[in-house]
Amino acid sequence: MKLRKCLKHAFEMVVHSKLRSWLTILGIVIGVASVIAIMSIGSGMQESMNDQLGGLGGDILTLSAGFSRSSRMFGGGGPPGEGSSSSQATDEDDEPVLDKTDVQALRAIPDIEAIDTQISGTVDVSYLGKKGSVKLTGVDQKSWSRITTSEIKEGRMLDSADQNVVVIGEKLAESFFDKPVGLNQMITIEENVFRVVGILDDDGNGIYMPIQMAYQVLDDKENGVYDSIVIKIKNEDELEQVMNKTEEKLMLVRHVTEKTKDFSLSSSKLMEATRSEMMSSMSNFLVAIAAVSLIVGAVGIANTMFTSVLEKTKEIGIMKAIGARNKDILSIFLLNAGLIGLVGGFIGIILGIVMSALLPALMGETGMLRGGTFVAVNSIALALSASVLIGIVSGVVPAYQASKLKPVDALRYE
Amino acid sequence: MKQNSTLLHLENVWKIYKMGEVEVPALRGVTVNIKKGDFVVIIGASGSGKSTMMNLIGCLDMPSKGTIILKNQDISKLSESDLATLRGSTIGFIFQQYNLIPSISAFENVMLPLEFLEVDEKKAIERTKKILDIVGLSDKSHHLPTQLSGGQQQRVSIARSLVGNPEIILADEPTGALDSVTGRQILDMLHKLWKEEGKTIIMVTHDLKLAKYAHTRIELQDGKILSINQKSEVG
Question: Which one, out of A41, A72, B180, B235, has a CA that is 20 to 30 A from the CA of A374?
Protein backbone atom coordinates (compact mmCIF):
# COMPACT_ATOMS: atom_id res chain seq x y z
CA MET A 1 0.00 0.00 0.00
CA LYS A 2 1.30 3.46 -0.86
CA LEU A 3 2.40 5.71 2.00
CA ARG A 4 -0.26 8.30 1.14
CA LYS A 5 -2.98 5.67 1.48
CA CYS A 6 -1.49 4.40 4.76
CA LEU A 7 -1.55 7.98 6.02
CA LYS A 8 -5.19 8.31 4.96
CA HIS A 9 -6.15 5.17 6.90
CA ALA A 10 -4.09 6.30 9.90
CA PHE A 11 -5.89 9.65 9.83
CA GLU A 12 -9.26 7.87 9.67
CA MET A 13 -8.28 5.85 12.72
CA VAL A 14 -7.62 9.08 14.64
CA VAL A 15 -10.87 10.64 13.46
CA HIS A 16 -13.01 7.58 14.16
CA SER A 17 -11.90 7.13 17.74
CA LYS A 18 -12.30 10.76 18.62
CA LEU A 19 -12.54 10.68 22.40
CA ARG A 20 -9.70 8.23 22.98
CA SER A 21 -7.49 9.94 20.41
CA TRP A 22 -8.10 13.37 21.87
CA LEU A 23 -7.45 12.20 25.41
CA THR A 24 -4.15 10.72 24.25
CA ILE A 25 -3.36 13.88 22.32
CA LEU A 26 -4.09 15.87 25.48
CA GLY A 27 -1.31 13.99 27.28
CA ILE A 28 1.17 15.03 24.62
CA VAL A 29 -0.23 18.59 24.52
CA ILE A 30 0.41 19.03 28.25
CA GLY A 31 3.94 17.62 27.95
CA VAL A 32 4.93 19.70 24.93
CA ALA A 33 3.33 22.88 26.27
CA SER A 34 5.22 22.48 29.57
CA VAL A 35 8.51 21.92 27.79
CA ILE A 36 7.96 24.94 25.50
CA ALA A 37 6.86 27.21 28.34
CA ILE A 38 9.74 26.19 30.59
CA MET A 39 12.28 26.45 27.78
CA SER A 40 10.91 29.89 26.93
CA ILE A 41 11.27 31.00 30.55
CA GLY A 42 14.86 29.73 30.52
CA SER A 43 15.60 31.51 27.24
CA GLY A 44 13.88 34.67 28.50
CA MET A 45 15.97 34.67 31.68
CA GLN A 46 19.09 34.09 29.64
CA GLU A 47 18.20 36.93 27.27
CA SER A 48 17.39 39.24 30.15
CA MET A 49 20.68 38.38 31.83
CA ASN A 50 22.61 38.90 28.63
CA ASP A 51 20.94 42.28 28.21
CA GLN A 52 21.85 43.26 31.75
CA LEU A 53 25.39 41.98 31.71
CA GLY A 54 26.21 42.06 28.03
CA GLY A 55 27.05 45.75 28.01
CA LEU A 56 29.42 45.57 30.93
CA GLY A 57 32.56 44.75 29.05
CA GLY A 58 34.79 41.81 29.76
CA ASP A 59 37.73 44.01 30.75
CA ILE A 60 36.03 45.68 33.71
CA LEU A 61 36.61 44.83 37.39
CA THR A 62 34.69 46.32 40.27
CA LEU A 63 36.28 46.74 43.67
CA SER A 64 34.05 47.18 46.73
CA ALA A 65 34.78 47.36 50.43
CA GLY A 66 33.55 44.45 52.54
CA PHE A 67 33.63 40.81 51.54
CA SER A 68 30.58 38.94 50.43
CA ARG A 69 30.67 36.46 47.61
CA SER A 70 26.95 36.09 47.45
CA SER A 71 26.36 39.79 47.11
CA ARG A 72 28.86 39.86 44.26
CA MET A 73 27.17 36.96 42.59
CA PHE A 74 23.64 38.23 42.42
CA GLY A 75 23.50 41.64 44.00
CA GLY A 76 24.40 44.96 42.51
CA GLY A 77 22.94 43.91 39.20
CA GLY A 78 23.59 47.35 37.85
CA PRO A 79 26.66 47.88 35.74
CA PRO A 80 29.82 49.39 37.16
CA GLY A 81 29.91 53.08 36.68
CA GLU A 82 26.48 53.29 38.20
CA GLY A 83 27.63 52.53 41.70
CA SER A 84 27.23 49.39 43.75
CA SER A 85 24.64 48.75 46.39
CA SER A 86 26.90 46.38 48.27
CA SER A 87 29.71 48.81 49.00
CA GLN A 88 30.26 49.29 52.67
CA ALA A 89 32.26 52.48 52.84
CA THR A 90 31.26 54.41 55.89
CA ASP A 91 32.95 56.76 58.25
CA GLU A 92 32.88 54.28 61.10
CA ASP A 93 36.32 53.04 62.04
CA ASP A 94 35.47 49.35 62.22
CA GLU A 95 33.94 49.29 58.76
CA PRO A 96 36.32 48.65 55.87
CA VAL A 97 36.49 51.47 53.33
CA LEU A 98 38.12 52.19 50.00
CA ASP A 99 40.36 55.25 49.84
CA LYS A 100 43.35 56.83 48.11
CA THR A 101 45.71 54.14 49.41
CA ASP A 102 43.85 51.57 47.38
CA VAL A 103 43.87 53.79 44.32
CA GLN A 104 47.60 54.29 44.63
CA ALA A 105 48.15 50.56 44.97
CA LEU A 106 46.07 49.95 41.86
CA ARG A 107 47.95 52.58 39.90
CA ALA A 108 51.13 50.64 40.57
CA ILE A 109 49.79 47.65 38.62
CA PRO A 110 50.92 48.00 35.01
CA ASP A 111 48.09 45.80 33.63
CA ILE A 112 45.48 48.37 34.67
CA GLU A 113 44.54 50.94 32.06
CA ALA A 114 42.15 53.21 33.95
CA ILE A 115 40.62 53.61 37.40
CA ASP A 116 37.32 55.28 38.18
CA THR A 117 36.46 56.02 41.81
CA GLN A 118 32.76 56.24 42.52
CA ILE A 119 30.27 57.11 45.24
CA SER A 120 26.53 56.85 44.92
CA GLY A 121 23.29 57.55 46.72
CA THR A 122 19.68 58.51 46.29
CA VAL A 123 18.90 62.20 45.85
CA ASP A 124 15.89 64.42 45.36
CA VAL A 125 15.82 66.05 41.99
CA SER A 126 13.46 68.67 40.62
CA TYR A 127 12.87 70.25 37.25
CA LEU A 128 10.24 72.90 36.50
CA GLY A 129 8.51 72.24 39.81
CA LYS A 130 8.32 68.44 39.39
CA LYS A 131 10.24 66.43 42.02
CA GLY A 132 11.45 62.90 42.36
CA SER A 133 14.10 60.60 43.79
CA VAL A 134 16.81 59.15 41.62
CA LYS A 135 20.20 57.55 41.95
CA LEU A 136 23.20 59.83 41.81
CA THR A 137 26.66 58.55 41.02
CA GLY A 138 29.75 60.60 41.53
CA VAL A 139 32.47 59.54 39.10
CA ASP A 140 36.06 60.42 38.39
CA GLN A 141 35.35 62.49 35.31
CA LYS A 142 38.87 62.02 33.98
CA SER A 143 38.47 58.25 33.54
CA TRP A 144 34.71 57.60 33.62
CA SER A 145 34.18 58.26 29.92
CA ARG A 146 36.94 55.73 29.10
CA ILE A 147 35.59 53.04 31.38
CA THR A 148 31.81 53.27 31.09
CA THR A 149 30.12 51.23 28.38
CA SER A 150 27.25 53.71 28.18
CA GLU A 151 27.09 55.71 24.98
CA ILE A 152 26.28 59.38 24.79
CA LYS A 153 23.10 60.23 22.93
CA GLU A 154 23.16 64.00 23.07
CA GLY A 155 25.79 66.44 24.28
CA ARG A 156 29.01 65.12 25.79
CA MET A 157 30.53 63.07 28.60
CA LEU A 158 31.98 64.71 31.71
CA ASP A 159 35.50 66.09 31.35
CA SER A 160 38.21 67.00 33.80
CA ALA A 161 37.36 70.71 34.02
CA ASP A 162 33.67 70.14 34.77
CA GLN A 163 32.15 71.23 38.06
CA ASN A 164 28.44 72.04 38.31
CA VAL A 165 27.39 69.85 35.42
CA VAL A 166 25.72 66.44 35.11
CA VAL A 167 25.13 63.74 32.55
CA ILE A 168 21.73 62.11 32.89
CA GLY A 169 20.05 58.91 31.73
CA GLU A 170 17.72 58.92 28.75
CA LYS A 171 14.63 58.02 30.75
CA LEU A 172 15.24 60.84 33.22
CA ALA A 173 15.65 63.25 30.34
CA GLU A 174 12.61 62.18 28.38
CA SER A 175 9.88 60.95 30.65
CA PHE A 176 10.68 61.40 34.34
CA PHE A 177 9.45 64.97 34.60
CA ASP A 178 6.37 66.60 33.08
CA LYS A 179 8.52 68.06 30.34
CA PRO A 180 11.64 66.58 28.74
CA VAL A 181 14.97 67.84 30.03
CA GLY A 182 17.12 69.11 27.17
CA LEU A 183 20.80 69.87 26.91
CA ASN A 184 22.02 72.89 28.91
CA GLN A 185 18.82 72.88 30.99
CA MET A 186 19.24 73.40 34.71
CA ILE A 187 18.04 70.79 37.18
CA THR A 188 18.04 71.06 40.96
CA ILE A 189 19.69 68.28 42.95
CA GLU A 190 19.36 68.53 46.74
CA GLU A 191 18.98 72.35 46.41
CA ASN A 192 22.04 72.71 44.17
CA VAL A 193 21.58 73.68 40.56
CA PHE A 194 23.36 71.73 37.84
CA ARG A 195 23.51 72.10 34.09
CA VAL A 196 22.84 69.06 31.91
CA VAL A 197 25.73 68.61 29.47
CA GLY A 198 24.98 65.12 28.21
CA ILE A 199 22.18 62.59 27.85
CA LEU A 200 23.11 58.91 27.79
CA ASP A 201 21.78 56.42 25.26
CA ASP A 202 20.34 54.05 27.88
CA ASP A 203 17.09 53.27 29.58
CA GLY A 204 18.11 54.64 32.96
CA ASN A 205 17.22 57.61 35.08
CA GLY A 206 20.57 57.94 36.84
CA ILE A 207 22.56 61.13 37.27
CA TYR A 208 26.35 61.26 36.89
CA MET A 209 28.45 64.13 38.16
CA PRO A 210 32.09 64.79 39.10
CA ILE A 211 32.90 62.97 42.33
CA GLN A 212 34.00 66.12 44.13
CA MET A 213 30.57 67.68 43.50
CA ALA A 214 28.90 64.46 44.59
CA TYR A 215 30.62 64.65 47.99
CA GLN A 216 28.88 68.00 48.45
CA VAL A 217 25.48 66.70 47.41
CA LEU A 218 25.60 63.39 49.27
CA ASP A 219 25.92 64.53 52.90
CA ASP A 220 26.62 61.09 54.32
CA LYS A 221 29.67 60.47 52.17
CA GLU A 222 33.10 61.18 53.63
CA ASN A 223 35.51 62.96 51.35
CA GLY A 224 38.23 60.65 50.05
CA VAL A 225 36.24 57.49 50.77
CA TYR A 226 34.79 55.62 47.81
CA ASP A 227 31.87 53.27 47.53
CA SER A 228 33.48 51.41 44.68
CA ILE A 229 36.41 51.56 42.32
CA VAL A 230 35.87 50.51 38.73
CA ILE A 231 38.96 49.19 37.00
CA LYS A 232 39.56 48.76 33.29
CA ILE A 233 42.34 46.33 32.48
CA LYS A 234 44.57 46.49 29.42
CA ASN A 235 44.13 42.96 28.12
CA GLU A 236 40.81 41.18 28.50
CA ASP A 237 42.45 37.80 27.87
CA GLU A 238 44.52 38.18 31.04
CA LEU A 239 41.49 38.92 33.20
CA GLU A 240 42.05 36.19 35.76
CA GLN A 241 45.77 36.84 36.13
CA VAL A 242 45.14 40.57 36.60
CA MET A 243 42.41 39.84 39.12
CA ASN A 244 44.77 37.64 41.13
CA LYS A 245 47.53 40.19 40.90
CA THR A 246 45.18 43.00 41.99
CA GLU A 247 43.84 41.00 44.91
CA GLU A 248 47.36 40.19 46.12
CA LYS A 249 48.36 43.82 45.88
CA LEU A 250 45.27 45.03 47.74
CA MET A 251 45.68 42.42 50.47
CA LEU A 252 49.22 43.64 50.91
CA VAL A 253 48.33 47.32 51.26
CA ARG A 254 45.25 46.65 53.35
CA HIS A 255 47.17 44.25 55.62
CA VAL A 256 44.69 41.42 55.24
CA THR A 257 44.95 37.74 54.38
CA GLU A 258 42.61 35.43 52.45
CA LYS A 259 40.75 34.77 55.69
CA THR A 260 40.46 38.37 56.82
CA LYS A 261 39.89 39.83 53.39
CA ASP A 262 37.80 43.03 53.65
CA PHE A 263 37.17 43.83 50.02
CA SER A 264 35.51 42.24 46.98
CA LEU A 265 36.85 42.25 43.49
CA SER A 266 34.38 41.09 40.89
CA SER A 267 34.39 40.68 37.18
CA SER A 268 31.26 41.09 35.13
CA LYS A 269 32.55 38.47 32.72
CA LEU A 270 33.11 35.84 35.41
CA MET A 271 29.86 36.81 37.06
CA GLU A 272 28.05 36.36 33.75
CA ALA A 273 29.67 32.98 33.18
CA THR A 274 28.70 31.77 36.66
CA ARG A 275 25.16 33.06 36.34
CA SER A 276 24.86 31.61 32.88
CA GLU A 277 26.02 28.21 34.10
CA MET A 278 23.56 28.30 36.97
CA MET A 279 20.74 29.39 34.69
CA SER A 280 21.55 26.64 32.26
CA SER A 281 21.52 24.01 35.03
CA MET A 282 18.23 25.36 36.34
CA SER A 283 16.67 25.38 32.86
CA ASN A 284 17.83 21.83 32.23
CA PHE A 285 16.37 20.73 35.55
CA LEU A 286 13.02 22.34 34.76
CA VAL A 287 12.98 20.88 31.24
CA ALA A 288 13.73 17.47 32.72
CA ILE A 289 10.68 17.84 34.97
CA ALA A 290 8.56 18.88 32.00
CA ALA A 291 9.95 15.96 30.01
CA VAL A 292 8.46 13.60 32.58
CA SER A 293 5.00 14.71 31.46
CA LEU A 294 6.06 13.96 27.88
CA ILE A 295 7.02 10.45 28.97
CA VAL A 296 3.61 10.09 30.61
CA GLY A 297 2.13 11.22 27.28
CA ALA A 298 4.19 8.60 25.48
CA VAL A 299 2.88 5.89 27.80
CA GLY A 300 -0.61 7.20 26.97
CA ILE A 301 0.04 6.78 23.26
CA ALA A 302 1.37 3.25 23.75
CA ASN A 303 -1.69 2.42 25.83
CA THR A 304 -4.04 3.86 23.21
CA MET A 305 -2.25 1.99 20.46
CA PHE A 306 -2.49 -1.33 22.30
CA THR A 307 -6.20 -0.71 22.86
CA SER A 308 -6.56 0.25 19.22
CA VAL A 309 -4.84 -2.93 18.07
CA LEU A 310 -7.15 -4.99 20.26
CA GLU A 311 -10.20 -3.09 19.03
CA LYS A 312 -9.15 -3.40 15.41
CA THR A 313 -7.94 -6.98 15.49
CA LYS A 314 -10.80 -8.16 13.31
CA GLU A 315 -10.26 -5.30 10.86
CA ILE A 316 -6.59 -6.24 10.67
CA GLY A 317 -7.69 -9.78 9.82
CA ILE A 318 -10.03 -8.49 7.11
CA MET A 319 -7.31 -6.28 5.65
CA LYS A 320 -4.88 -9.20 5.60
CA ALA A 321 -7.48 -11.43 3.95
CA ILE A 322 -7.93 -8.92 1.14
CA GLY A 323 -4.23 -8.48 0.50
CA ALA A 324 -2.64 -6.30 3.21
CA ARG A 325 0.98 -7.13 3.93
CA ASN A 326 2.54 -6.97 7.38
CA LYS A 327 4.35 -3.77 6.46
CA ASP A 328 1.05 -2.14 5.38
CA ILE A 329 -0.48 -2.80 8.81
CA LEU A 330 2.74 -1.71 10.52
CA SER A 331 2.79 1.54 8.53
CA ILE A 332 -0.87 2.34 9.25
CA PHE A 333 -0.47 1.87 13.01
CA LEU A 334 2.89 3.66 13.19
CA LEU A 335 1.51 6.60 11.23
CA ASN A 336 -1.52 6.63 13.51
CA ALA A 337 0.76 6.93 16.55
CA GLY A 338 2.92 9.51 14.77
CA LEU A 339 -0.17 11.55 13.87
CA ILE A 340 -1.29 11.57 17.50
CA GLY A 341 2.19 12.81 18.42
CA LEU A 342 2.19 15.41 15.64
CA VAL A 343 -1.26 16.82 16.47
CA GLY A 344 -0.40 16.78 20.19
CA GLY A 345 2.91 18.46 19.50
CA PHE A 346 1.36 21.12 17.28
CA ILE A 347 -1.38 22.03 19.76
CA GLY A 348 1.16 21.77 22.60
CA ILE A 349 3.40 24.30 20.88
CA ILE A 350 0.54 26.76 20.45
CA LEU A 351 -0.48 26.30 24.09
CA GLY A 352 3.16 26.56 25.15
CA ILE A 353 3.57 29.86 23.30
CA VAL A 354 0.38 31.21 24.87
CA MET A 355 1.55 30.03 28.31
CA SER A 356 4.97 31.57 27.87
CA ALA A 357 3.35 34.86 26.87
CA LEU A 358 1.10 34.81 29.94
CA LEU A 359 3.68 33.58 32.45
CA PRO A 360 5.49 36.89 33.06
CA ALA A 361 2.15 38.53 33.84
CA LEU A 362 1.05 35.63 36.05
CA MET A 363 4.37 35.57 37.90
CA GLY A 364 4.28 39.32 38.40
CA GLU A 365 7.25 40.03 36.11
CA THR A 366 9.75 39.08 38.74
CA GLY A 367 13.37 40.09 38.30
CA MET A 368 14.28 36.93 36.42
CA LEU A 369 11.42 37.37 33.97
CA ARG A 370 11.80 41.11 33.55
CA GLY A 371 12.89 40.58 29.99
CA GLY A 372 9.82 38.46 29.27
CA THR A 373 9.92 34.92 27.92
CA PHE A 374 11.44 33.91 24.64
CA VAL A 375 10.25 30.99 22.53
CA ALA A 376 13.16 29.94 20.35
CA VAL A 377 12.51 28.43 16.92
CA ASN A 378 14.78 25.53 17.73
CA SER A 379 12.74 24.69 20.84
CA ILE A 380 9.61 24.56 18.63
CA ALA A 381 11.35 22.30 16.13
CA LEU A 382 12.72 20.18 18.97
CA ALA A 383 9.30 19.83 20.65
CA LEU A 384 7.54 18.98 17.39
CA SER A 385 10.07 16.39 16.29
CA ALA A 386 10.23 14.97 19.82
CA SER A 387 6.45 14.58 19.97
CA VAL A 388 6.29 12.84 16.57
CA LEU A 389 9.22 10.63 17.56
CA ILE A 390 7.61 9.83 20.90
CA GLY A 391 4.38 8.95 19.06
CA ILE A 392 6.17 6.65 16.66
CA VAL A 393 8.39 5.03 19.30
CA SER A 394 5.37 4.46 21.55
CA GLY A 395 3.53 2.93 18.62
CA VAL A 396 6.33 0.58 17.54
CA VAL A 397 5.47 -2.36 19.79
CA PRO A 398 1.67 -2.19 19.31
CA ALA A 399 2.09 -1.68 15.55
CA TYR A 400 4.51 -4.60 15.31
CA GLN A 401 2.09 -6.71 17.31
CA ALA A 402 -0.72 -5.75 14.93
CA SER A 403 1.35 -6.51 11.84
CA LYS A 404 2.28 -9.96 13.12
CA LEU A 405 -1.29 -11.05 13.77
CA LYS A 406 -2.16 -14.21 11.87
CA PRO A 407 -5.08 -13.44 9.56
CA VAL A 408 -7.00 -16.52 10.60
CA ASP A 409 -6.73 -15.64 14.31
CA ALA A 410 -7.53 -11.98 13.69
CA LEU A 411 -10.64 -12.85 11.69
CA ARG A 412 -11.86 -15.10 14.47
CA TYR A 413 -11.44 -12.34 17.09
CA GLU A 414 -14.68 -10.92 18.46
CA MET B 1 -18.51 -23.56 -18.03
CA LYS B 2 -15.33 -24.84 -19.48
CA GLN B 3 -12.82 -26.17 -16.92
CA ASN B 4 -9.12 -25.85 -17.49
CA SER B 5 -5.96 -26.76 -15.63
CA THR B 6 -5.56 -27.31 -11.91
CA LEU B 7 -5.74 -24.03 -10.00
CA LEU B 8 -5.52 -25.33 -6.47
CA HIS B 9 -4.22 -28.63 -5.17
CA LEU B 10 -4.22 -29.92 -1.60
CA GLU B 11 -1.99 -32.93 -1.03
CA ASN B 12 -2.36 -34.93 2.19
CA VAL B 13 -3.13 -31.78 4.16
CA TRP B 14 -3.37 -32.00 7.92
CA LYS B 15 -4.28 -29.28 10.33
CA ILE B 16 -3.73 -30.04 13.98
CA TYR B 17 -4.63 -27.61 16.75
CA LYS B 18 -2.88 -27.84 20.07
CA MET B 19 -5.14 -27.46 23.09
CA GLY B 20 -2.56 -27.46 25.87
CA GLU B 21 -1.14 -30.96 25.93
CA VAL B 22 -3.84 -32.35 23.65
CA GLU B 23 -3.57 -32.30 19.87
CA VAL B 24 -6.86 -31.96 18.01
CA PRO B 25 -6.77 -32.76 14.30
CA ALA B 26 -9.23 -30.62 12.32
CA LEU B 27 -8.21 -31.94 8.91
CA ARG B 28 -6.74 -35.39 8.39
CA GLY B 29 -4.85 -36.03 5.20
CA VAL B 30 -7.10 -34.15 2.77
CA THR B 31 -6.21 -34.42 -0.88
CA VAL B 32 -8.26 -32.50 -3.39
CA ASN B 33 -7.78 -30.95 -6.78
CA ILE B 34 -9.73 -27.84 -7.82
CA LYS B 35 -9.68 -26.88 -11.45
CA LYS B 36 -9.92 -23.41 -12.86
CA GLY B 37 -13.52 -22.41 -13.58
CA ASP B 38 -15.08 -24.95 -11.23
CA PHE B 39 -17.94 -24.19 -8.84
CA VAL B 40 -17.12 -26.14 -5.72
CA VAL B 41 -19.24 -26.43 -2.65
CA ILE B 42 -17.73 -27.80 0.55
CA ILE B 43 -20.37 -29.20 2.83
CA GLY B 44 -20.35 -30.92 6.15
CA ALA B 45 -21.72 -30.81 9.62
CA SER B 46 -20.44 -28.53 12.32
CA GLY B 47 -16.88 -29.51 13.30
CA SER B 48 -16.30 -31.41 10.10
CA GLY B 49 -13.36 -29.16 9.16
CA LYS B 50 -15.08 -26.90 6.57
CA SER B 51 -13.84 -23.62 8.02
CA THR B 52 -10.34 -24.99 8.56
CA MET B 53 -10.25 -26.11 4.94
CA MET B 54 -11.50 -22.73 3.79
CA ASN B 55 -8.79 -20.93 5.78
CA LEU B 56 -6.13 -23.13 4.22
CA ILE B 57 -7.50 -22.75 0.70
CA GLY B 58 -7.63 -18.98 1.24
CA CYS B 59 -3.99 -18.92 2.43
CA LEU B 60 -5.15 -17.44 5.73
CA ASP B 61 -3.54 -20.31 7.61
CA MET B 62 -0.78 -22.84 7.03
CA PRO B 63 -1.19 -26.64 7.14
CA SER B 64 0.48 -28.63 9.93
CA LYS B 65 1.43 -31.22 7.36
CA GLY B 66 0.99 -31.62 3.63
CA THR B 67 1.24 -29.29 0.68
CA ILE B 68 -1.02 -26.64 -0.81
CA ILE B 69 -0.25 -25.58 -4.35
CA LEU B 70 -1.98 -22.43 -5.56
CA LYS B 71 -1.29 -21.37 -9.12
CA ASN B 72 1.72 -23.70 -9.20
CA GLN B 73 3.20 -22.16 -6.04
CA ASP B 74 3.69 -24.00 -2.76
CA ILE B 75 2.18 -21.49 -0.33
CA SER B 76 4.28 -22.69 2.61
CA LYS B 77 7.41 -21.62 0.75
CA LEU B 78 6.24 -18.07 0.05
CA SER B 79 7.26 -15.10 2.15
CA GLU B 80 4.58 -13.28 4.12
CA SER B 81 4.65 -10.42 1.64
CA ASP B 82 4.43 -12.65 -1.44
CA LEU B 83 1.68 -14.69 0.15
CA ALA B 84 -0.32 -11.53 0.92
CA THR B 85 0.10 -10.34 -2.67
CA LEU B 86 -0.88 -13.76 -4.06
CA ARG B 87 -3.91 -13.82 -1.76
CA GLY B 88 -4.93 -10.29 -2.72
CA SER B 89 -4.60 -10.86 -6.44
CA THR B 90 -5.93 -14.43 -6.69
CA ILE B 91 -8.62 -14.85 -4.05
CA GLY B 92 -11.68 -12.77 -3.29
CA PHE B 93 -13.33 -13.45 0.06
CA ILE B 94 -17.02 -13.34 0.86
CA PHE B 95 -17.75 -13.85 4.55
CA GLN B 96 -20.94 -14.83 6.32
CA GLN B 97 -20.84 -11.68 8.46
CA TYR B 98 -19.72 -9.55 5.46
CA ASN B 99 -16.63 -8.34 7.35
CA LEU B 100 -16.65 -4.79 6.01
CA ILE B 101 -14.57 -2.09 7.66
CA PRO B 102 -17.23 -0.11 9.56
CA SER B 103 -15.47 3.25 9.60
CA ILE B 104 -15.19 3.68 5.83
CA SER B 105 -17.80 3.94 3.09
CA ALA B 106 -18.97 1.13 0.82
CA PHE B 107 -16.92 2.67 -1.99
CA GLU B 108 -13.75 2.75 0.12
CA ASN B 109 -14.37 -0.80 1.32
CA VAL B 110 -14.61 -2.03 -2.25
CA MET B 111 -11.52 -0.08 -3.33
CA LEU B 112 -9.38 -1.30 -0.41
CA PRO B 113 -7.96 -4.46 -2.08
CA LEU B 114 -6.80 -2.31 -5.02
CA GLU B 115 -5.01 0.00 -2.58
CA PHE B 116 -3.15 -2.97 -1.12
CA LEU B 117 -2.26 -4.08 -4.65
CA GLU B 118 -1.02 -0.50 -5.29
CA VAL B 119 -3.20 -0.11 -8.39
CA ASP B 120 -3.12 3.37 -9.94
CA GLU B 121 -5.73 5.49 -8.12
CA LYS B 122 -7.56 6.62 -11.23
CA LYS B 123 -7.92 3.06 -12.48
CA ALA B 124 -8.89 1.89 -9.00
CA ILE B 125 -11.70 4.45 -8.80
CA GLU B 126 -13.03 3.51 -12.25
CA ARG B 127 -12.89 -0.19 -11.43
CA THR B 128 -14.65 0.33 -8.09
CA LYS B 129 -17.44 2.35 -9.72
CA LYS B 130 -17.90 -0.36 -12.34
CA ILE B 131 -18.06 -3.17 -9.79
CA LEU B 132 -20.50 -1.27 -7.57
CA ASP B 133 -22.63 -0.75 -10.65
CA ILE B 134 -22.54 -4.49 -11.38
CA VAL B 135 -23.79 -5.34 -7.87
CA GLY B 136 -26.40 -2.57 -8.14
CA LEU B 137 -25.08 -0.32 -5.40
CA SER B 138 -23.91 2.75 -7.31
CA ASP B 139 -26.37 4.92 -5.46
CA LYS B 140 -25.23 3.65 -2.04
CA SER B 141 -21.51 3.89 -2.61
CA HIS B 142 -20.92 6.63 -0.06
CA HIS B 143 -22.94 4.99 2.68
CA LEU B 144 -21.21 3.50 5.68
CA PRO B 145 -21.76 -0.27 6.12
CA THR B 146 -24.03 0.39 9.10
CA GLN B 147 -26.30 2.43 6.85
CA LEU B 148 -26.88 -0.58 4.55
CA SER B 149 -29.12 -3.63 4.88
CA GLY B 150 -27.63 -7.11 5.31
CA GLY B 151 -28.17 -7.94 1.64
CA GLN B 152 -26.62 -4.69 0.55
CA GLN B 153 -23.62 -5.26 2.81
CA GLN B 154 -23.14 -8.72 1.34
CA ARG B 155 -23.27 -7.21 -2.15
CA VAL B 156 -20.58 -4.73 -1.07
CA SER B 157 -18.60 -7.72 0.18
CA ILE B 158 -19.06 -9.44 -3.20
CA ALA B 159 -18.01 -6.25 -4.98
CA ARG B 160 -14.90 -6.11 -2.80
CA SER B 161 -14.10 -9.73 -3.61
CA LEU B 162 -14.42 -9.04 -7.34
CA VAL B 163 -12.67 -5.70 -7.62
CA GLY B 164 -9.16 -7.14 -7.93
CA ASN B 165 -10.42 -9.50 -10.66
CA PRO B 166 -9.35 -12.63 -8.74
CA GLU B 167 -9.56 -16.08 -10.26
CA ILE B 168 -11.06 -17.61 -7.13
CA ILE B 169 -14.07 -16.42 -5.13
CA LEU B 170 -14.05 -18.01 -1.70
CA ALA B 171 -17.42 -17.72 -0.02
CA ASP B 172 -17.93 -18.79 3.59
CA GLU B 173 -21.62 -19.33 4.28
CA PRO B 174 -22.46 -16.31 2.09
CA THR B 175 -26.19 -16.56 2.75
CA GLY B 176 -25.97 -17.54 6.39
CA ALA B 177 -26.99 -14.14 7.71
CA LEU B 178 -29.57 -13.32 5.03
CA ASP B 179 -33.25 -14.04 4.52
CA SER B 180 -34.13 -16.63 1.89
CA VAL B 181 -35.02 -14.15 -0.87
CA THR B 182 -31.84 -12.08 -0.45
CA GLY B 183 -29.84 -15.27 -0.03
CA ARG B 184 -31.12 -16.55 -3.34
CA GLN B 185 -30.21 -13.27 -5.03
CA ILE B 186 -26.66 -13.56 -3.72
CA LEU B 187 -26.38 -17.15 -4.91
CA ASP B 188 -27.71 -16.16 -8.32
CA MET B 189 -25.05 -13.51 -8.44
CA LEU B 190 -22.32 -16.06 -7.63
CA HIS B 191 -23.74 -18.45 -10.21
CA LYS B 192 -23.69 -15.70 -12.80
CA LEU B 193 -20.07 -14.90 -11.97
CA TRP B 194 -19.19 -18.54 -12.50
CA LYS B 195 -21.18 -18.89 -15.71
CA GLU B 196 -20.43 -15.58 -17.34
CA GLU B 197 -17.16 -14.42 -15.88
CA GLY B 198 -15.48 -17.80 -15.61
CA LYS B 199 -14.60 -17.36 -11.96
CA THR B 200 -13.68 -20.34 -9.82
CA ILE B 201 -16.18 -20.36 -6.98
CA ILE B 202 -15.47 -22.22 -3.76
CA MET B 203 -18.36 -22.03 -1.34
CA VAL B 204 -18.40 -23.43 2.17
CA THR B 205 -21.81 -24.17 3.65
CA HIS B 206 -23.66 -26.51 5.93
CA ASP B 207 -26.85 -26.03 3.90
CA LEU B 208 -27.32 -29.01 1.63
CA LYS B 209 -29.90 -27.12 -0.46
CA LEU B 210 -27.18 -24.80 -1.71
CA ALA B 211 -25.22 -27.71 -3.13
CA LYS B 212 -27.42 -27.68 -6.23
CA TYR B 213 -25.70 -24.53 -7.43
CA ALA B 214 -22.31 -26.21 -7.52
CA HIS B 215 -20.60 -28.32 -10.13
CA THR B 216 -18.40 -30.15 -7.64
CA ARG B 217 -19.55 -31.19 -4.20
CA ILE B 218 -16.99 -32.04 -1.54
CA GLU B 219 -18.40 -33.54 1.62
CA LEU B 220 -16.33 -33.48 4.79
CA GLN B 221 -16.76 -35.53 7.91
CA ASP B 222 -14.49 -35.49 10.95
CA GLY B 223 -11.74 -33.76 9.02
CA LYS B 224 -11.71 -36.23 6.18
CA ILE B 225 -13.21 -36.11 2.72
CA LEU B 226 -16.26 -38.32 2.71
CA SER B 227 -17.07 -37.88 -0.96
CA ILE B 228 -16.35 -35.77 -4.01
CA ASN B 229 -19.19 -35.63 -6.53
CA GLN B 230 -19.25 -33.83 -9.80
CA LYS B 231 -22.28 -33.13 -11.94
CA SER B 232 -22.09 -34.97 -15.22
CA GLU B 233 -23.21 -31.84 -17.10
CA VAL B 234 -21.82 -28.49 -16.23
CA GLY B 235 -24.29 -25.81 -15.08
Answer: A72
